[in-house]
Every structure is written in structure tokens, then in C-alpha cells.
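ok so for the tutorial part 2 we go from a plain amino acid sequence to predicted C-alpha cells. step 1 is just haveing the sequence, like this:
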Amino acid sequence: MTKSIEFTNPLVNGIHARPAAEIENRTTPFCCQISLLNISKGTKADAKSVLSLVGADVAVGDECQLVFDGTDEQPAFEAMKAFIEGEFADCDEPLECSEADVCQPLPVSLLKAEPVYVRGSIVSRGIGKGCPVVCSQVDLHKLAESVAFEENGPAEETIKKARHILCQQIEQAIAQAKAQGSREELSILKAHLQIASDSLFSQSLAKHSLQGNPILAIAKASDELKAPMLKSQSSYMRERALDIDDLCARLASLVVGKPLQQPVTLVKESILVADNLTPSEFLALDKRWLKGIVLAQAGQTSHTVILARSFGIPVLTAVEAVDAFVQDAESLVLDGLCGCLIRDPNEKVEQFYLLEHHKHLAKTSLLTAYASSKGQSKDGRALSLYANIAVGLEASSAFERGAEGIGLFRTEMLFMDRDDAPSEEQQYDVYREVIEAAAGKTVIIRTLDIGGDKPLPYLEMPEEENPFLGYRAVRMYPQYQHMIESQIRALLRASRHGEVNIMIPMVACMEEVEWIHQLCQQCEAQLTAEGRVTGCWRLGIMVEVPSARYLLEKAAGLIDFISIGSNDLTQYFMACDRGNRQVGALYDSFHPGFIAFLAEIAKTAKTAGIELGICGEMASDKRALPLLLAMGFDEISLSSPNIIQRRADLAQLEYASCCKLLDEVCGLASLDEVKAKIDQFWQQQDHPEILSEQLVVQCHAIDKAGVIKQLTDNLEVHGRAENAVAVEQAIWDREAIFATSLGFGVAVPHCKSAAVNHNSISIAHLEQPIVWNEADGETVSTVIMLTISSHDDEGTHMSIFSKLARKLMHREFRDALMNNALGREQTVSLLKGVLYEQVA
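step 2 — the prediction. this is what the C-alpha cells look like for a chain of 840 residues:
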């Protein structure tokens, strides 16, 4: 009797190659026929074929049904029911996308530079400049007409051999990506291997090869396989058609026995322009010279775009008539921040992007001061910032990005994508490399966190109704004790190269602590008996289960540290599945009850003498930083690109004010109140004086727009404005009302805006006089810019303006102010003497 499972697809990106591969892997072992029906769209797929599943065009929210028909339909039904209900929602995740507003107007200073430009959609952020390189695409149908083949030749056998070689090439690329720790590349290559190995791919090629021309067969198979994707309402699914293009072009190249076109060779800084670019074509480019890409067809989730982001290469798409625009151009600027492509930039455009570059360098330079320092608050309270890593090769990069240690080395990657568990020796080599890279810094290595929600193919893990609350992590260690002993032995052996901190996941009761402690002792005794040397090692646990809070005092003699797994602890404390959109509002670590519980755990740990750390989303969140400092955390562990910025944020905080905030937050009633209180706290942290030496600049701008841009950029660099472009616009809005030159070679542009964080007086000493008022040709050599927050109700704006206007009437003051040899300190002192009493 036929059985079925009905479900609503929860995956944001729909059922594309990765989740389709999960379904295929789960269904293939069963003999019965298993079909996926997309009830919302009226499509049907073979659940044992990745391409068939992708072709069903299952988008988020679509109503679906799995149908089982055959001899073993009952066990198949039970296995897939457990998968759909317990794991399916977590087999994919939303892809990172650019947050730029592609409809935003260009900055005033750029528009005034009169660039020759076209607009485009930003899919990878950044700015690049280079000569245009136009890349044409291969048309397989035209290629089929130009290559002669015997009508009755073995086209199917030719394609089969080429496909076998293609799969081998992809497998080799996967091995290389693993060795290099290239996660984005690895994920895409695995998806390509699934497609190349798919039965539907093979069947389509075989069907069309009957005509005798293997290239034509590949072209027709490509069209057939892409058709349902291109018809999809989901942009993500439409973009998967390019992966078919990529694989079919590579397959055709293998059949022909040579590249289908001359490879693109970059010999100088270049902007690549193409209708489309496949992932393999992108990977073949010399990234040293690739400064940007313009694509006619690509979206946020294109695999090529994802790769470009990982390499930091800006990408624009949907640029109208781009081929005609770049024709005969000598140079292009691809602006992946404003969303425009500029050809042959003039002097003023060059100035704009030079100032953009200087702003980026200045912001980076300010953070560089925190790259090698230790994390501590403004009043000297220590809080170390560690990095999360998933593969050993990430360790060196993490330390280069300012990590004070490794707070979470997830070892699951060592055990995944294999036919069996890694050997003790293989693990030892990886752990040793990380310890040696740390050069004495703390390294916390989490033992295998695997189970029903993250199965390994070589373990016989049971199917579970709710795997997140089931047989996982430390709970399955006794059954697989030999494998866990191998990992612990490898960790203990690595300790001879530096201290190893062994962290056990998902601990819920004292019996588990005692068992794992005894196992570590036994492994060390075995190694000693074998004559192997071990060094210093410590034992810790992850606190992810609320019950762990109540074992800390008892476990203090057996463990040295704990790390809060904020993601799991939040969902278990709030009793909500973080993958369930219907209860998504409950999954937030800033609920006042959870913060109070976290503070209770921290107090218990500190009282028991246990070192305290935290990882997960909360550790990366700026909002949480003052709360974690107040609770007494010793370290937080986050992704390495965020470390330097968080260390800079930490340096603004004072321990006493953070403790006061924590008390206030715990007394609040709602999530919104907590977030509002914390946001208010951050706004009050920095009260810079309205006059400061950092606001005095030597200005090399060649026009008024350049002066205003340099001064507003400087506000953003020093945190006095969130967005320089918004302040710049407010200044120009004021300029449109009346001229701000006061005569005597001085201009006082000004604005009152919500984009201004702190009232500021900026001063620019110009290298050469510039025209300020085009109408009368009036020039200025000194600019004093007033930027006042819209929250200021004290009349500061007009008070300063009127005082300056009166004072500038005096020649002695003007001469002193306009002296280009006047240093920053003297400039500030001169203005303070005139204005301070007025603006205090």
C-alpha cells in the first residue's frame, strides 16, 4: 500500500543541489520508488535524482509530498519521516548576500565629478579599477555544427568516457579545496560532482547521443536540464542553470580534446566583462590581476558570485548595454559600493576614488592598533578574543587577524566526507599543526560533536524523531568509545607541542563529566605505558543544556573551564527550535530571562574557580559585549574577521557602567526593551569634544566637492558619523539654500542631521585656493565645517556660526587661522579660545 509524507518546504533557497543531494543520499538505499510531488506548482520528481529534484522547482513555503511505493516502503517512509521532521530544515542555510541598496543615488561629490557611467546591481561589494577584458561565451549548438563526427559513431561511449574524466577532475579539485580550507569552493565543487554523477544527467546525455553527434547531444541535454530551472520563480534556482552550462562546457571540451576557446589571460589590472562566467572559468583566472567583474546575468546566489566574494572581488550585474559602453574604453572603475561602472575616469573622478581609498586605509589603520593588542576595557578589565575554526589551516589566518587564541576548533570536518573515521595519526598531525601555529596561545579543541542531526555515513546512528534532543555528541561516545579514544589520544599526544584544552560537547549531567574525565586519564596512562610523551592538557565542557548550570560546583574538581554554546543554550532554554520559523521570535539570546540565566551560570562558574568562555552568535554581537564583560567572562570566541572590530568596541567600555547596564537589563520585561536599552548605552559611551585635533586636516582636494568629501569621510573614520555620504548630502542640501563662504577666503559649510553622531567642528587647510561659489568665482583657502546632530536642541549650530562670522571680521584672527603652517594643536587651541565658552 502506497505511503506518503506531507510537508512545507522550510529551506530559504529551495531544494537546490545541496539539500537535493541529502534527499538522494537518504532515499537511494531503498528499493521502492520514492517520488517528490511539489503540490504548489504541480511538478513531480524522482527523489533518488538530484537533477530531478532540482527540476521540481521547490521554493520556500511550497507544499510538498513524498510518496513511497514498493516492497520496502514502510522502512523508507519511517526513515524519511524522521529526516524531514528532524533534520531537513538544517541541511541548508541562507547564503550571504550584499546589503547594498542598488537604487541609492550616487554621492554628490561623485556626481559633481561628472563621470561617464552606467548603473548596475551590486552582488559583491568593493571597488576595482583596471582595463576592460571582454570574455565571450561558448555556444554548444554552433560548436556542434563546426565539428565533424561520424553519423554512426559511438557518441554515447565517447560522452561516457568524458563524463568519467570530468568526475575525476572534480574529485581532484575537491581534494585540493579541502587541503586549502576553501569552504565556498569545496561546497560548490561537491554540488557539481552530484550533478555530474546524477542519473538524470546520464540519461539525458544518452538519449540525445543517439543522433551520433556528441557535442549536439551535450548541447541538447544542457537545454533540457536547464529548462525547469530557468522557468523557476526563484532567482536562486534560475542561477543554478549556470552550473549546468559549466559542466556541459567542460564535458564538450573533453570530447573535443582541447579548450573550447582561448583561456582568458590577465597580464595587468583588469575588469572582466562577460555575459556570464562559470565557476570553473572564474577559478582559472589569475586573481592577482582580476580587480572586478561585470556580468550580464548573475544574482546574489550565483556560485561564481559566491566565489568572487570569498576572494574579495567586486561584481556588478544587470548593467545595460555594457558591451557598447566598454567598447574602446581604456580604463574602467567598477564601484561595488555605489553600484556603477565608470569608463575613462577624469581627474575629479580619480580624486573621488583616491579619497575613498584614503578613507578605507584610515579606518583600517585605526583598527590596526587593536590587531596585536589584548582585549581589555577602557579601565583595564581583561576579556580575551579568540577565534572559531573548522579546519586546521584556518588557525594561522586567525592569528594574523588578531586572535588571542582558538576558542573553538570544531573537529567534525576531520570526520566528514570520508568512508571511515580518521586515524589517530592523521588527527595528531592536524592538532599538532594548530598547536604549533598558536605558539603558546590558548587552543580549545572540541571533541566530535556528531549525532542524529549530523550523521556520519560510517556510523550506524539510529533514526530519531527529534535528533537535536537525541543521541548526539557525548551521549554517543560510549557506543563509539574506540573512535573517541583515538581522538583523545591524538589530542593528548599533541599536548607535548603546547597546552591542549579538550572541550566536551552537550554535557548534561555529572555522570558524563566523570566518565569523560576517567577516559582521559586512562588514555594518558596508556600513552605513558607505551613510552609516548604528553604535555599539559586541561579538560572543559560546553554548556549548551540548561541542566549543566547545576553541576558546575560538583564538577569544579574535574574540569578547568567551560564554554557557553549560546546558540544551543538559547534554543533549549527558550524551548524553541531555532530552525522553525513559526517560533523564530523566541530564538533570541537577548530575552531578559536568558540574560539573567546566563549571568547566573557565569557567577556560579567564577565562584567555583572555573574559567569562563562563550561561543556562538551571541559572542559576535556588539550588543552582548558589555553584558559579557559585566558577567566576568574570561574569553569570547567568534569568527576571526570580526575580532579586531570587537576589540576596538571593548576598549570603549568601562566595567562599572557595564555592570549597571546588566542590572538594568535583567529587570526589564521584554526583548525589545533590552535591545533599546543596550543601543542607548552604546550611544552614550563616547562623548568626544566638539573640537579635536583629529578633525583638522591638510586638504589636497582640487575642488569644493573634494573638500566636503574629505571632511565628511573624516567624520566617518572617527566614528562621529555612521555614513559620510549622508552627512555630505546634508551639507550640499544646505549649500543649495545659500552660499556658506563668509568672505576673506573662509567658508563655513554646515548641517544639522540625524546622520551625525557627535557635534563636530572640522577644519581643512587647503593646499591651494579653490573656487567655492561658481557664480562669482569666489575662492577660499580655509574651510570650517559644522556638523550638528539632529538630537541637539541647544542652538549649538547657530551659536557657533554667528560667533565665527563675527570673529572672522578681525584680520588678526583670520591671518592666524589661515596660516597653513599652523599645526593641528595650534588650530584647535585658536578656535577653542574663541568658541569654547559658547559651545560647552
